[in-house]
Amino acid sequence: MRTVTRGKGAADRRPPGRRRAVALSAVGCALAAVAALLAPAALDGPGERGRPAPERRAAAPARDAEGATHESCERPEASLRPSPDSGPAVRRIKARASGKLIAGVDQNSYRWGYRDPATGDLTGFDIELVRAIAEEIFGDRDAVIFRTIPTNQRVPALHERKVDIVVRTMTINCDRITGEDKVAFSTAYFQAGQQLLVPRDSPITSYGPTLRGKRVCTAKGSTGEQRLDDERRGVRSLGATKVTVPNQLDCLVRLQLGEVDAVFTDSALAAGQAAQDPSVKLVGEPVTREPYGVAMHSDDTDLVRRVNKVLEDYRRGGADSPWMRAYRAWLQDDLPGVKAPPKPAYKD
């Protein structure tokens, strides 16, 4: 755990150039390679070794996120209306001795949450949003303690009160807002979809028959894993094998090492990886709709409303809104064509 400080107006600066991206890829992938080799992947399903044809950029998502047909959940992306009030959760955070917000983030997702190889500082689209939330609560965008957490620890970190919020390309879906392990979400701040990332010489062309006999990697606890486990549409129905790892970047390393044939992940993350590594490409269309939200403890309803106020302000201003400035700085190069942030949906 460490606190990272950066100057104001970071959303307006351009991301590192391609030379820095290459350096980041080398550093990040080397670290992930060590983790991947030390922690064996989990395998599920048939399949055989295979070696990874038309190229595709990240496209608009096609279907609802997994869990969207849950019996008691019709609009998972609908959240609580924004409010500037400080309830029990916000007061607890403000009374903390450190005087800082504690945020669960990623450090391996290029453009979203990653370490600048030149400074070692955490930066990216998600990191800018965390700083906006800190500024709303404390009046200081640097009043943040960043805790980097793996994909499958996002929910436990909230339940165990290790973090106040999780801003880590986390999909809002019914499985996560209902049941024993539920968390609360803000309104959606971005929308992506699950898509395949494969080597450039791969025969895999889409999420379909060309996956037969192939090994498909995804992060444990992700919505990608939920889709791969689906009885009717998952990897077993396609004759493929699921491979799970703690972090999504570990999948890229295994792909580079030839230990898996494809990575199944959010198109937004995959686009960043394809930008870093010219030996891989996106194929097919996104097969789900994945709205990203800020996750919080399900009891912290006043914090949810406060974060939604931040998002209302973040979206406001049209082409010059903080959201659009952050999009142009971090995401536009690899995810072009986005004209506006997702519209908020409320349930009260």
UniProtKB/TrEMBL annotation:
Q: What start and end residues bound the annotated signal peptide?
A: none
Question: What UniProt keywords apply to this chain's record, in alphabetical order?
Answer: Membrane, Signal, Transmembrane, Transmembrane helix, Transport
Q: Which GO BP terms apply?
A: amino acid transport
Q: Which residues form a coiled coil?
A: none
Residues passing through the membrane, by range: 21-43
SMART domains assigned? PBPb
Q: Which GO terms describe its cellular component?
A: extracellular region; outer membrane-bounded periplasmic space
Composition bias, kind Basic and acidic residues: at what positions? 46-78
What positions does the domain Solute-binding protein family 3/N-terminal occupy?
100-334
Name a Pfam family for this protein.
SBP_bac_3
Q: Tell me which family the UniProt entry assigns to this protein.
A: Belongs to the bacterial solute-binding protein 3 family.
What is the name listed in the Swiss-Prot or TrEMBL entry for this protein?
Glutamate ABC transporter substrate-binding protein
Provide the species name: Streptomyces buecherae
